[in-house]
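pasting for ref
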Amino acid sequence: EVDGSVVAEKLRQALAGSSRKLSSSAVFDSPAPPSLLPKRATEELTGIHPLEMARQLTILDSKVFRQLTPDECLYGRWSGSEKLARSPNVCALIAGFNQVNARVISSILLARSSRKRVKLLEWFLQLLYHLRELQNFHGVMSVLSALQSSPLFRLKKMWLAASKKTDILESTAKLMSPQKSCKEYREVLGNCSPPLLPYIGVYLTDLTFIEDGNPNLKGGLINFQKHRMCAEVLRQIRLYQQTPYNLVGQPSILEHFQSIPILSEDEQWELSLQVERRATEKD
């Protein structure tokens, strides 16, 4: 009798390519772009150029993405009680996504005036633009989902004050829309040249549907079609891992962002209500 799970593992690894991690070192033909550091010390996030912050977030996520091995994405290893041992890099990408998301929301809600909230919102819209220009779709989705979150999206006065600068939000929301199985995003991704950082959530969803919706065996024979579909997803991941970003790390910039306190979801909602009361609560 054929052990379908064992055969599937070997087949997918063979079709997807090597499961070895890529080298972290790289040689580039041209120098990295110069860093855009603040001319003077600043405590304000908006005192940092959003392009430089986009670069630092991209460096961070790209390092984790390039360490990911195909087997981490299979069989839902990135969920469950043993996920950190079985899928450390996928878990790290997900954790980084959630932390960026929470810090975007928290920083805007913690601003002490409406003027500062609008200034931060406009800064994050620029960050979204630069992440998109860097083809960091993982970062794009993290910031986009934060700006579309209920605690921020309901703040009508804030959005009205920044209305002249929200075109990037609308176009990016259209790009990353889940409609028709993320059709527009997949098309754009397919036309991009590396380096790029794909949104890992799409691949994990694809693999889950393939694995759950198709048996390993059909009539006692190996279901090659299922394993080819899984292998194609893994091949795409490996393809985008090959080319690193040519960027210079600036730890102080990243530390500035990572120092933003993270509010719980309940705290976010409560603070949102304090910032702008519900229409039904107004006098």
